[in-house]
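Researcher: Quick test of sequence recovery. Tokens follow.
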């Protein structure tokens, strides 16, 4: 059984990000498959965590290059997710408690589509508006109005 399916609703028409998102879902599903098979899911979880760290770092680099505020809703969500993922791993390693991993599987499957459809879509929109090329890391258009907010609110850095 798949934990999360890739659907057209998740396509953001930004090839690098779409590929990264597909990889995230594949790794989440591999982790879920290991849990379902009742085999050691930690190797699959480590792969998912490493990918998620790199995935979020890439997006945050793009945000910085596009003029997002350093403290923004999008990056804050990334930090919260990584903190929870790392804490679940700590429970598994130090306390031999695997239950948080099972819970996290379900929570990530529910969180990710909403995050992609809202936060990541806003990032892609900003990238397009500013002429950002993820390959070169350059924006062809300067920000016309201060720093960008991924939540369309001026208060997300507060």
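Model:
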């Amino acid at each position: 059984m798949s934990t999360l399916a890739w659907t057209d609703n998740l396509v953001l028409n930004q090839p690098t990000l779409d590929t990264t998102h597909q990889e995230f879902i594949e790794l989440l599903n591999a982790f879920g498959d290991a849990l379902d098979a009742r085999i050691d899911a930690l190797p699959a979880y480590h792969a998912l965590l490493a990918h998620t760290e790199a995935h979020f770092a890439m997006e945050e680099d793009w945000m910085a290059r596009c003029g997002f505020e350093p403290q923004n809703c999008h990056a804050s969500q990334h930090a919260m997710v990584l903190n929870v993922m790392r804490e679940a791993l700590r429970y598994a390693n130090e306390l031999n408690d695997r239950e948080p991993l099972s819970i996290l599987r379900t929570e990530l499957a529910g969180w990710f589509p909403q995050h992609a459809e809202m936060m990541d879509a806003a990032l892609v929109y900003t990238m397009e508006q500013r002429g950002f090329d993820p390959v070169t890391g350059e924006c062809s258009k300067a920000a016309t109005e201060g720093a960008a907010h991924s939540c369309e609110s001026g208060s997300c850095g507060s």
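Confidence is low (pLDDT under 50) at residues 152-158.
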